[in-house]
Design brief:
Belongs to the protein-tyrosine phosphatase family. Non-receptor class dual specificity subfamily. This protein is of the alpha/beta class. Helix content is about 55%, strand content about 10%. It is built from 12 helices and 5 strands. A hairpin with a 2-residue loop joins strand 1 and strand 2 (about 55-60). The longest helix is centred in the first third of the chain and has 42 residues, at about 1-45.
């Protein structure tokens, strides 16, 4: 009897040791994967801050903590969009930082912050103060926030806003859910602009808007004639897009001309088709 109990005990100990070794191996493998991901992340091409408009920059977490860049670009204000806790941007006063806590997932309701962030950015720009809009990588959340700003302040369609940002920052790629929210927001552009005008002096608002359009015309000539939209410039209009043809023409060709065909690949063309149905609801 004792012999049997001893055998059972030895087996249990052996099993526990095996399980412990397997767990240790799994933990070790997970650590290796994490280290590999970290090295890959560090090895990626770092764009640094991207100037979108005068006094408006787009970037990532690394940019927000780069003291030299912040001083060089004279960043006075920051829109910080991520789900991390803790202080970001140690050179800025907390009162000059707008914190938006949101994850980069399609189901996140980023559109509820569009008016708040647009107002914050515009107030700083009217005062000739530079703003950095950043998330973790400067690819999805911050791009979405700036696209919303361009839609309202520069009368751009959501497709034109994204195309313009991608031309400036090729890594820009908001997730599908954020793009759908931008498309819907663009349909309410007139109402959002009225709300903006109620907060700012109309003369100053129009002056900055005119200056921004001049800059966009220089950088986006094929698809941004603000005063005379035509067949070849279907990306920009004062009305929300009513058909997928409106979105596809011009914007797709523009991205091809800019050697960024991956931005409007088959998957994204499908996205545009789905957006057309979404806008008609």
């Amino acid at each position: 009897m004792r012999h049997k109990l001893l055998i059972i005990t030895i087996r249990e100990i052996s099993r526990d040791r095996i399980n412990s070794m397997q767990n240790a191996e799994q933990i070790s493998q997970q650590k290796e994967r994490n280290v590999k991901k970290l090295l890959e992340w560090k090895g990626r091409n770092w764009y640094g801050m991207t100037k979108i408009l005068p006094y408006l920059y787009l970037g990532g977490l690394r940019d927000a903590n780069d003291v030299e860049q912040l001083r060089e670009k004279q960043i006075d204000y920051m829109v910080s969009i991520h789900e991390l806790s803790g202080r970001i941007g140690n050179t800025l006063d907390d009162r000059n930082i707008l914190h938006i806590h949101i994850a980069d997932v399609p189901e996140a309701n980023i559109s509820e912050y569009f008016m708040e962030t647009t107002t914050f950015i515009h107030r700083a720009r009217l005062a000739k103060k530079s703003v950095l809009v950043h998330c973790i990588a400067g690819v999805s959340r911050s791009v979405c926030i700036i696209a919303a700003y361009l839609i309202i302040v520069c009368d751009m369609s959501y497709a034109a806003a994204l195309a313009y940002i991608v031309n400036k920052r090729p890594c820009a790629n908001p997730n599908f859910g954020f793009r759908m929210q931008l498309a819907k927001y663009a349909g309410k552009r007139s109402f959002s602009e009225i709300m903006m005008r109620n907060q700012f002096d109309n003369e100053a608002f129009d002056e900055l808007k005119a200056n921004d359009k001049k800059m966009l015309l220089l950088n986006f000539p094929a698809n941004f004639p603000p005063d005379a939209p035509n067949e070849s410039a279907v990306c920009v209009d004062t009305k929300p897009p009513s058909s997928n043809t409106f979105l596809k023409k011009g914007c797709v060709e523009y991205m091809k001309r800019q050697n960024n065909p991956e931005f409007f690949n088959d998957a994204n063309i499908s996205f545009i088709d789905q957006t057309d149905s979404f806008l008609r609801q």
